[in-house]
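Run log, item B.
One chain of 501 residues. Sequence copied directly from the ordering sheet:
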Amino acid sequence: MLDATTQLIVDLFVLLAAAVLAGEISVHLGQAALVGQLIAGVVLGPTLLGPFFGLTGLTAALTAVQTLAVIFVLFLAGLEVVPTTIYRMEFGNLVLGIGAFAVPFTLGALLVGPVLGLGYPTNLYVALTLSITALPVMSIMLDELGLGRTRLGTWLLNAALVNELTAVSVFAVLLRLGTTPFANVTAVLTGVVSLALFIATMLTIHQGLNLLRSSRLWDRLAKGFAKTWRSKQGEFALLMVLVVGATLYSQFLGLTYVVGAFYAGLLVTRESAGKEAHRSISQIFGAMSWGFFIPLFFALIGVNMNLQQLATPTLVVSFAILLGFAAISKIGSGFSIATLFGWKRTDALTIGHLVNSRGAVELAMAVILLDAGLITIRIFTLVAAIGLVTTILAPIGATQAILRDPERRDALYRRVPSLRPGPGRRRYRSVDPEEALWGWSPGSILVEDTRASASGVPNPSAGSTPPPQPTPDPASGSAESAAPAGLPPLPRDRRKPRPGK
């Protein structure tokens, strides 16, 4: 019999090793690493090996580790939020981000209750977890499809950012309802005021840091800090104090610590911290998160799941209904809104499938609801299983939508040779600088309705309604201006040209 400390170390070792290995296998199979990490937790948990291995649930120590992992995961998601990008965002990004949340949430609130036999407000909690688009997972999928630096990719990332901001804010207010069977207007209003106060505080601190950064006082403070601070990685230590302080402040206001961890990322930007410090902080925090906390987080989610509880005809039918609803509502809303804003059918389908991806934020909220006793382990398992399946289906559906269009298919094969069928396929993406980026080929803008033929002559049969103007690149803070007149600016291309070019 192992003592508690040794048991914790053994559990962490087994979970982390299995999650890292399963995540790598998942990536090689063309899926996000979180898919393999979740499956590793399911295998080691009560669904399969738990009764024999001992992981039939989370101990108090593992629950504490999971809480810390949730903070890291949500702060990392918050780091993706660039306030200047929000200020400059296209109207279409706002509509897609809010619409891809509001449509599934509203319809889900009506459907979840009858399907699962849940009352108010539990039906709202479940509907909310099914309505979130995962920003980190979206970023990974776009990168794997070679779309990360294209206009379509930027459009999707900005929409996912709006989706997560909306979902986290609504979640904070809904938690005020608790298990109240009837509408508690006072609780909701208190939640709205608390959330507004918290966001106002974060934005005020953010603007204050920006002003301080642009003043001469900042240089004196930085030099004084460098001279007097002797501890290693002092900047990172102060960052962790900021994260924990923000989570504590959100708890003090009656909001969940999820809100504090997520919105704390707003304070750490290139403007407030400086480019060098921001890069250093991102590298250290990213290494800790992706190398330790994120694999553990998803593995622990899998351990919390017990798929055996869904092995009844009623729950299987309920799962199928909600899975279909979760997928169709997301794909349908994404496709419809993208079409409304001028994207051609192939691109709109790609957008619809990719907004169907779910991930860390959704599961983190499910963990909060489970720990608070607002949902049962059976509902938690159902929500996590739907998130797992839709995340697997998202890149598959997007790839199939692209492959139906010959022009898109050729661009995809050039960017991701491993997807090309037949002999001679390569695993890694080509780095040929002469290859056109998706949507930015010489002589034709693929993401527009004005498509070019092989000879470079525009296709007169194509539609004439252009999609919206490109959103500035969040990484650079501005869009390039080297595009020909009448065409969208080209994204920044950091690839080195061939010698002699």
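Observations after the first pass:
- The chain has 20 helices and no strands.
- Confidence is low (pLDDT under 50) at residues 424-498.
Flagged for discussion on Thursday.
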